[in-house]
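lol ok so funny story. i was supposed to be doing the assay writeup but got distracted and ended up predicting the structure for this chain instead. priorities right. anyway since i did it might as well share w the group, maybe its usefull for someone
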Amino acid sequence: MPPIRFGVNYTPTRGWFHHWLDFDLDEVRSDLDSVAALGLDHVRVFPLWPLFQPNRTLIRPRAVDQLVSLADAAAERGLDVAVDGLQGHLSSFDFVPAWTTTWHRRNLFSDPDVLDGQAAYLETLAAALADRPNFLGMTLGNETNQFSGDPHPDPDRITPDQASAWLERMLAACERGAPGRLHLHASYDAAWYLDGHPFTPEHSATLGALTAVHAWVFNGTAQRYGRESTATAQHAAYLIELSKAWAEDPARPVWLQEVGAPAPHIPAEHGPAFVRDTVRAALDCTELWGITWWCSHDVDRALADFPELEYSLGLLTNGRQAKPQGLAFADAVREERAAPHVPAPRTLALAVESGTPCAPGGPVFEAWMRLAERGLRPACVRSERVADSAHLKDRGIAEVIQPHEV
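and the output, tada:
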C-alpha cells in the first residue's frame, strides 16, 4: 500500500458552502493556507448542486470555473482535491435543485430525465478537472443514500436493484469525464446498519474505485457506551473492518472519508484524545487508503439554524487558528509519516450472518468490541465465506468465531 493519505473536508470560513454564491478566491486561499499548515495532503470539496446546475440543462460555466480555480489554489499549497458532485445533504440541510422538487417532484434515483441531468453534471465536473494533476476523483455526492428511505421526511423510494443501476450509471459518467481517477460513492452508515435500506453493504464494498465509510459516534455509539469507551475509540476501525466483509477483492482500499468529534458527545477537552485514539485504531487496519477529518474550520456562528454540534467540528476555528484537536491530528500525521505503521493481518475474524444487525447495540458490534477490549484485533467475514479457504488465506484469517461465542 502507498503512504496513508491525510486530509480534511473543506468547510469555507466565509459563508460556509454558500460561499459559492459570493466566491472569493483570496478567502479560499487563506483557508487553504491554514489547512496546509496542519501538514495535510488533500481536501474534499463540495460544490452545491443547486447552484452549479440550477436547471436540468444549465450547468453554470462560471461555477465550474470557480471549482477549477479552487483546485488550482489547492495545488499551489501542495493539496490534492477530491470533489463531491450531488451534495444532497450537508450538516442537516438538504441541497437539491428546484427541478426535482415540489411542482417538479421527481425521483432522484429513477426518473429518466433526472438521471440524464445528473450524469451530464457529474461528467462535466470531472472533465473540467481531468487535466489537473492534483485532482483525485469524484465522489457521487455526500451521503446521497439518505434520500432513499427512512428517516428522511420525504424519501425517494427505490429498490436495491435501482440503487445499483443508479450508482453504476453515475460512476460511469465520472469515468467518462476523467478516466482513471478515484471515482466512488459514499453512504452514511444506514448502508451498514439499517435493515432494509436500499443502499447496501455490497454496493459500498464493490462499486467504485474504493470503499468509503463515514464514522460518526453520535449515531448512538457515544451515547450508549460513553465517550471514553473502546466502542467510541474503535468505531471507525469497526466500520473499516466491517466493510471488508463484503469486498470481493481482499486488497480493496478503504477510505475513512468522514470522522469527527461531535460535542457534547465528545466534549472539547476530550477532543484531542478522541482524535489520537481514532487515528491510531484506523491506522491498525490493513488496506486503509486515507483519513479525511470532518471538518476543516468551525461554522460561523453568525449562520443560523445548524444543530449545535455542527458549529464546533472544525480542526481550526472560524478565524483559521488551529484548535487542540487540530494540533492532535497534525501530530498524528507527523508521527505516521515519520514512522509509518504497517499493520499485521488480522488473523481472528468475526462471522457476520446476512441479516444480522451490525449497528451499535447489535450482536456483531457488541462481540467485535468485546474482542477489542481484550486487546485482540478482530476482522469481519461474511458467514457465506467462512468455508472459502482461499478467501480466508488471502486475508490472512486463521480463525473464525461466531458472535455468540465471544
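Residues 367 and 403 are 5 Å apart (CA to CA). The mean pLDDT is 97.
back to the writeup now i swear
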